[in-house]
Design goal:
homodimer; 182 residues; alpha+beta; Nucleoside Triphosphate Pyrophosphohydrolase; 2 domains; four-stranded mixed sheet; three-stranded antiparallel sheet; 3 helices
Chain lengths: 182, 182
């Protein structure tokens, strides 16, 4: 018997995608009913909010097919095998922004889409950036944007920054680490 | 030609799930390469942070198969057809918590999983709650938890609250509406 009276009867792969895969589950519910539930499997990942010594955050601007629009996000990526979240976050930071860091600090973990995806992302910040070299995948096209922290908070409130991991990292860093007042 | 030099060549349904469906896309990239990309279609939804007159937030505790664990979340649900976000948010608030509200206030919208899902959630808060009656779906099993706002912020920072929409709503409400200091 699983948590809280739920019991997984079976889980079947129905489509293996490029990054995520679709499974179908049969769950026995606490009331005895059996339900079909969706389950998206994701390799997990990590993201890092880069903060310059001048108090600006560095965001990546990129096209996202899921929304058919360009979004502003913190550098992020999926895990390579079983690597630690810190390793993923440091790699993506350097590849996407051209800054590296000797040390990153954990903010929190986040479950982006708890209703259907097993994805968990580790969220970090780095405020001791060292200039390095951007190193994008052949298929990536990314522009960098530097925004003062307080303005980035305003852009989360106004909806100009709308990506969940990015908003979580900016708000948590701004109010609980940098302790800005609003 | 789509945004920023990307062009969608085709999108094909590979599996229709209970709530979300899996599509496969062929995209022409700015560098001329053609890539397979995943695309999860979701009906969209809304969520509402309920705040009592005593400054407590009301969260729902429920089992989530995607994580095989119980999570603390604000009441949320998917849209019924083309209804407005406010309608979804007000309905889910009342059904899941047993409180209704005459008025809710928009906080922001959020894209939970921009890498693969088209989901957009409208986030609201309600601080003028009126006692009503919980009205769960037959298959829902939900416990209610009331937590002082400042403690809820602490639980976001510590990772006890980890669901992305819930953390976004609590942090944005606490720091930009209630203007707590940390």
């Amino acid at each position: 018997m699983g948590a809280d009276g739920y019991k997984k009867l079976d889980r079947t792969l129905v489509h293996k995608g490029v990054v995520v895969s679709f499974y179908k589950e049969h769950m026995k519910l606490p009331n005895g009913n059996v339900a079909d539930w969706d389950y998206i499997a994701h390799p997990g990942g990590a993201a890092c909010l880069p903060v310059t010594k001048d108090g600006e955050v560095i965001l990546v601007s990129q096209y996202r097919n899921s929304q058919d629009r360009i979004t502003l996000e913190i550098p992020a990526g999926k895990k390579d095998g079983n690597e630690a979240n810190e390793v993923t976050a440091l790699r993506e930071l350097e590849e996407e922004t051209g800054y590296r860091a000797d040390k990153i600090t954990h903010l929190t973990d986040t479950i982006p889409a708890v209703g259907y995806s097993d994805e968990v992302l580790g969220l970090f910040y780095a405020d001791n950036l060292i200039e390095s070299k951007q190193n994008l995948d052949e298929d990536e096209k990314i522009d960098l944007v530097k925004i003062p922290l307080r303005k980035a908070v305003d852009m989360c409130v106004s909806g100009e920054i709308i990506d969940s991991k990015t908003v979580t990292a900016i708000l948590m860093y701004a109010f609980t680490v940098a302790k800005i007042t609003y």
